[in-house]
Specification:
331 residues, 19% strand
């Protein structure tokens, strides 16, 4: 099936409506090729020049616009999970992604650097990236970088949300902290250990930096050999191992969460957090303290985590930013 697709709306953050364009790649076999793509998604395309509401593969209802006999636009709800499911179905059917060069996508750009900056701006989920990206064309014209630096790689976290994994003993307030940071109820909280059987995650805004926050189930060195908790512990270890930032969290009544990380075979945490600080300070060393219930230390915690991942000095530097490594190859 010679069909190409392009997601024309940002896919890294939720939106009310998404736009997924489908194109017939071979002009000799349209409109059959688009009909095949539509049938793979479980719907009949509307007549050319019309729009209709269709069920898309049982995933979501979407408005479908048939612009020409070679171009359809699907407009489902804009949640990342919905978009990913539709794209997975398209890929299984043999469709391939159309990735136009930014200079083609943004003909109004003055030069390739500006075109790439506009493309990055359209996809970035972090508010801190906006002004920084808009300043890059002028900075590149003034001084073209010869190679990327550690600062460049840190700043790319503004474009690709880094992962923060929070690990520690059970029932110390990790889930309540996630709910407070997210501003909504995401994780079940209660006084019984083992409540968070699987890890729970959300994309949250840390002072302008979008991060994927993973609330791992509590790790217990004395846990009974129950299958559910054993599987949960494996998930916690797996999530923590791939995180950009590992946070060890405990409260005044728990052991040092670093010891829990060591017992699980995890790397040394980059950040140690005392949660439920309103209950009193712990007797183990920690980088920061916060309390979800009272809000104590939450603002300082957010600033400290963002500074760890994207330092203020990196943001304030006037040096050009290699926000896309391909820019170094441009003439």
């Amino acid at each position: 099936m010679s069909t190409r697709y392009r997601v024309s709306t940002p896919r890294t953050r939720p939106a009310a409506i998404a736009a997924i364009d489908l194109y017939a790649d071979d002009p000799t076999d349209h409109p059959t090729v688009l009909h095949k793509a539509a049938f793979q998604l479980g719907f009949r395309p509307p007549p050319t020049g019309t729009i209709a509401l269709r069920d898309i593969a049982g995933i979501d209802h979407a408005v479908v616009a048939a612009w020409t006999d070679r171009h359809l636009t699907l407009m489902p709800h804009g949640g990342p999970a919905v978009i990913d499911a539709i794209l997975a179905t398209l890929q299984q059917a043999g469709a391939t992604e159309l990735c136009p060069d930014p200079t083609t996508r943004y003909p109004e750009a003055a030069d390739p650097i500006e075109a790439h900056a506009l493309a990055a701006l359209a996809e970035s989920p972090s508010p801190l990236a906006v002004d920084l990206l808009l300043s890059q064309p002028a900075r590149w014209r003034a001084m073209r970088p010869a190679a990327e630096t550690p600062r460049d790689r840190r700043l790319r976290r503004l474009l690709h949300p880094p992962t923060i994994a929070v690990v520690g003993p059970p029932n110390v307030g990790k889930s309540s902290l996630l709910n407070t940071l997210a501003g909504r109820e995401l994780a079940a909280t209660c006084n019984a250990p083992g409540t968070t059987r699987d890890h729970i995650g959300a994309t949250i805004n840390l002072a302008g930096l979008a991060v994927r926050w993973i609330d791992c189930p509590g790790l217990r060195t004395d846990a009974p050999p129950e299958q559910a908790e054993t599987a949960a512990a494996r998930l916690a270890v797996q999530a923590a191992a791939g995180a950009d930032l590992l946070v060890a969290a405990g409260d005044s009544g728990s052991c040092d969460p670093k010891s829990v990380c060591r017992a699980a075979g995890l790397r040394e945490p980059e950040f140690t957090l005392a949660v439920r600080a309103d209950l009193g300070p712990p007797d183990w060393p920690h980088d920061h303290a916060a309390a979800a219930k009272t809000g104590q230390g939450i603002t300082r915690l957010v600033a400290a985590l963002r500074e760890t991942l994207v330092p203020e000095a990196d943001l304030r530097s006037d040096a050009p930013w290699v926000f896309d490594p391909r820019l170094l190859d441009l003439g």
